[in-house]
Amino acid sequence: MERIVDARGLSCPQPVILTKKVMDEDDGSLEIITIVNQQAALENVSKLAANQGYQYEVEEKDGDFYIRMKKAQGEGTGVKEGKNIAVLVKSRLFGEGEEELGGILMKSFLYTLTEMKGDIKHIIFMNSGVFLTCAGSPVLEHLKALAEEGVEILSCGTCLDFYNLKDKLEVGSITNMYAAVEILTSAEKSLTI
Amino acid sequence: MSNLIKAEKYALFTFNTTSHALKAEKVLKALGAEFLIVPTLREISSSCGLSVKLSWENIEKYYNDLLENKVPVEGVFRVEKEGKKNNITKIEMA
Amino acid sequence: MLNKEMLVVDVVEKFPCTEEVFKKYEEKAGNCIMCSHLFNTLEAVSRDYGLDLEQFMQDLEQSIKKGERVIF
């Protein structure tokens, strides 16, 4: 299938951002063609392609550059290792029930994740789950260890705002519902806690 | 404490019941101990799915502290991780 | 939420509202940062253009905090 990104006349970084959006949807079957008409844009889209493990060819036609990109097969540079699992944590406690037990189960759960090297790509914290990524959290060390292993730790910005925790975030970055849903639906497997 | 998370040589305390594990957490916390609540390793048969992971040097002190606070420790194990395998030795406390 | 090792492209992609901050800095830098340094880290950008990294990051974070309220 072919997807055309017409980025003629757009200034940096738009051609790259638009191309990246299509790449994020690509399961390897797409041929992406980005059209630009500026040298800087051509260079940056080419860099993006190389960066993301795409093979690309450039064709010039009437002053426009057509960059044809196809995901490299097999052991490409941009191919991620591991299973790509996303975890959604929607409460500061694990499951419903006694607070004491919920807290201790959460510790035990997150500790177990630290041992699953490479498979977990994202952990998203929503609602009271955001207490876990903020100052005073009993599992800050767990999450920092996960972040060091390359797991992306994301907290819901609306939730941080609601609980007045925006300045207390200690690990990871802030996300919104769009990004969170995209991650959860594009992951090979997602778990909700 | 992040060192303890990644530690591949450590000690584990197991418990008879979950309430003992919960109580152990409280006692150790009050003592300012460095420890982690972790799931009991699959290789260890224990009546409780939660264990306490701590560094090897401290086990005697904390074992006794727990006993004094009426938290019986079911088993004490020395764990050494080798790749994906855990080498586990049960330790008898005096 | 940002660190100096992040690439410009990742920052702009995740937080589109930071584009304005980069544009503002382009005036200072006299060059299109998002053209020439899109795949460089924030640290490299500030080094290459002699920017105050701390201030730069602060401005970016500020715009993210402001921008988020609009996004959701």
UniProtKB/TrEMBL annotation, chain A:
Residues 4-71 form the UPF0033 domain. This is Selenium metabolism protein YedF. It comes from Thermosyntropha lipolytica DSM 11003. The lineage of its organism: Bacteria, Bacillati, Bacillota, Clostridia, Eubacteriales. SUPFAM superfamilies: DsrEFH-like (SSF75169), SirA-like (SSF64307). InterPro entries: DsrEFH-like, Se_metab_YedF, Sulphur_relay_DsrE/F-like, TusA-like, TusA-like_sf.
TrEMBL record, chain B:
Residues 11-77 form the Putative Se/S carrier protein-like domain. Pfam families: Se_S_carrier (PF11823). It comes from the Bacteria. This is Putative Se/S carrier protein-like domain-containing protein. It comes from Thermosyntropha lipolytica DSM 11003.
TrEMBL record, chain C:
It comes from the Bacteria. InterPro entries: ScdA-like_N_sf. This is Hybrid cluster protein-associated redox disulfide domain-containing protein.
